[in-house]
Specification:
The protein has about 260 residues and is α/β, with parallel strands linked by helices. The chain has helices at about 20-35, 50-55, 85-90, 100-105, 110-120, 135-140, 140-155, 160, 185-200, 205, 220-225, 245-250; strands at about 10-15, 40-45, 65, 95, 125-130, 165-170, 210-215, 235. Strands 1-2-3-4-5-6-7-8 form an 8-stranded parallel beta barrel, surrounded by 5 helices. Strand 2 (about 40-45), helix 2 (about 50-55) and strand 3 form a beta-alpha-beta unit. The structure holds 2-phosphoglycolic acid.
Length: about 260
């Protein structure tokens, strides 16, 4: 599969870390060492930090994203944040269906699909997370699980819309555990995702869709993972910047203080 049709994306998932002051310090440091390239860089931060980060990164090419969004467009939904609201803040990306939200906040495949539709309608790029549990992997159910999640997340989208979705393959057993999928394991699943997209939407669409790997990606393993033909970048959470090469560390941000 030829990578020339796709951009590499390195996205940081800050989860529920960093105060505004910490985000400010990060942005200042990052801007000093960031060098624009063909790689797209995004920071997916908690909502309160989005306006500040959008402002801090204005004109740099560094994108800012949210980590979740409501499936409703407005209404009596106390505590929720709508797509319009994150668009107002300047978010260009939004993580959807992260396994932590699927496990702890009731994000079902159906909900993920609704959110993906809502985001695309407002021009925000959804980063759709999919991944199998360790027991699913052990029972050889990985491909079945991932195929289902991808199919469900994209249900009802046009081929043109599918091209705009970013998929992040994040095996649950690798997230925050320090245990990474091997290059071969990650490539096998990402290849499979692309094959399914090809079967459903055609080759022109499947070669355009960016597929990221996430789950304990760090300085030691990122080169091997990113060299795989169907892995177009990374979604990086807790990797400490001191363990990452200068460019990708700062690009990804770090989620733990
Ligand atoms: P991790 O997290 O890099 O800490 O494993 C990735 C993620 O949760 O997206």
């Amino acid at each position: 599969m030829n990578k020339k049709y796709r951009k590499v994306i390195i996205a940081g998932n800050w989860k529920m870390y960093k105060t505004i002051a910490e985000a400010r310090a990060f942005a200042e440091e990052f801007k000093k060492i960031y060098q624009p390239s063909d790689v797209r860089v995004a920071v997916c931060a908690p909502y309160p930090q989005l306006p500040f980060l959008v402002e801090a990164f204005r004109g740099t090419g560094i994108g800012v994203g949210a980590q979740n969004v409501s499936e409703f467009d407005k209404g009596a939904h106390t505590g929720e944040i709508s797509v319009d609201m994150i668009a107002d803040l300047g978010a260009k990306y939004c993580i959807v269906g992260h396994s932590e939200r699927r496990a702890n906040n009731g994000d079902t495949d159906e909900l993920v699909n609704t959110k993906v539709h809502a985001l695309l309608e407002k021009g925000i790029t959804p980063i759709v997370c999919v991944g199998e549990s360790l027991s699913e992997r052990d029972r050889d159910l990985t491909m079945e699980r991932i195929s289902y999640q991808v199919k469900a997340a994209l249900y009802g989208l046009t081929a043109e819309q599918v091209k705009k979705v970013v998929i992040a393959y994040e095996p649950i057993w690798a997230i925050g555990t320090g245990r990474t999928a091997t290059d071969e394991q990650a490539q096998e699943v990402c290849f499979n995702i692309r094959e399914n997209l090809r079967a459903q939407y055609g080759a022109l669409v499947s070669r355009k869709v960016c597929i990221l790997y996430g789950g304990s990606m760090n300085a030691k393993n990122c080169a091997g993972l990113l060299a795989q033909p169907d892995i177009d970048g990374g979604l990086i959470g807790g990797s400490r910047s001191r363990t990452l090469p200068r460019s990708s560390a700062k690009a990804a941000g770090r989620s733990k203080p």
